Amino acid sequence: MRSFIIDCDTAEDDVASIFLLARNKMRIAGVTIVEGNIGFDQEVTNALWALEKVNVDAPVFPGSRRPIVKDFTTVEEVHGKYGLGEIQATTFRKPSQKHAAQAIIDVSNELGEELEILAISPLTNLAMAYLLDPSLPKRVKKVWIMGGTAFAHGNITPVAEYNFWVDPDAAKIVFKAGFDITMVPWDVVTQYTINDEEWNEIINMKTQLSEIYVKMFSHYRKYDKDVQKLDGHPHPDLITTAVAINQGIIEESRHEFVAIDNSDSLTRGMSLIDHLDSDRPWSSSPNAEIVYKIKKRILLEMIKEMLS
Ligand code: BDR
Ligand code: CA
After folding, report:
1. Counting ligands in written order, which one lies closest to the CA of residue 83?
2. CATH number of the domain enclosing 54
3. Which of 105, 124, 179, 183 has the fewest CB atoms found within 10 Å of its own CB?
4. Ligand 1 site, CB within 6 A
5. Is residue 226 domain-resident?
6. What are 138-166's pLDDT values in tens digits?
7. pTM of the complete model
8. For residues 260 and 270, is the Cβ–Cβ distance under 8 A?
């Protein structure tokens, strides 16, 4: 059985990712929480609630409440006041007292090179874990990252994706650390939105999880259509999770060098991928596999199976 830590700023697509891991019988060794989409304490509650919904008894480790250097803003307008659209999650479950960064180190020691990290949020916790223990990349089998853009088409600024924009310093640290990274960019996942026909099919499923899905994503869907001008809602975190579970979903990927702009400028948080086969002064050997295309048919099958 494969073992994952899933690092969340728990809004609707982070919750869907927890559901997908659980329904695919992946072991969730821990859910670590990081600053991001909404108020931190609600993110913790949402993760505990999500685990309860799929009957998984995994520990939740609260981590960093802010980026390493820069200030950031939450985005309730994107995900709803409590991060889950129409749902206000509550739970009697309690989080662990251990900090997320320490939990990542401890779990990686316990699992001896079997741990995979699903990093679908700002990278502060993972950067902190690496700074505490620089031998971490040698022990972690794989890091699956949702973040950045491939073609500089952002969602929080014209050129930056939210997760990298929130903590570009952490992203820079993680991409330089030597982890085995697969990165799923924002402007790739926007090609695979859930269109009206697919949305209606999910509405008609009428299972416990499909009803949660519809309530969670209705607000995000409206925002994506009205503001991002997409033809439905995308699944940044869920696609990254699907890629982690089943690499057969990848249609096209390349190993390339990714740099992250952590300057205080118009391009803060932008990811720059070296598409050229050249020896530029800022470039270097590949530090990540970038996913450029996936098979939508497999994504839809995985979503429907998860909700069935
Ligand atoms: C990412 O930012 C958040 O809004 C989502 O949870 C996702 O991880 C998309 O840019
Ligand atoms: Ca996220």
Report:
1. 1
2. 3.90.245.10
3. 105
4. 9, 11, 13-14, 37, 78, 120-121, 146, 155, 161-163, 186, 236-237
5. no
6. 999 999 999 999 999 999 999 999 999 99
7. 0.97
8. yes
